[in-house]
From TrEMBL:
This is Cation:proton antiporter. It is found in: Cell membrane. PANTHER family: NA(+)/H(+) ANTIPORTER SUBUNIT F1 (PTHR34702), NA(+)_H(+) ANTIPORTER SUBUNIT F (PTHR34702:SF1). One of its GO terms (cellular component) is plasma membrane. It is a multi-pass membrane protein. It comes from Thermococcus celer Vu 13 = JCM 8558.
Amino acid sequence: MAQEGILVSAFYVLVFTTMLVTYRVLRGPTLPDRIVGLNTITTKVVVVIAVVSVIRGEYYLVDLAIVLLMVNAVGGLILVKYMERRSYD
């Protein structure tokens, strides 16, 4: 029972910090700041999905989290490549 309380607390902390990072995504000031903020939010969402899957005992959600993490990594690489081309042109 104590472990579930810790996981619920972790869930709320992750949601709160995700809201704080959302400010960085919306306000910038630069494109790299926004990209790092978006990657941070996606990573936190993956952790939230993993925590929720443990709390509810629905471990198939971990597969969803892994797929989202892979999409996040590929998306980050694509955005970095875009920024690299944009700065040299």
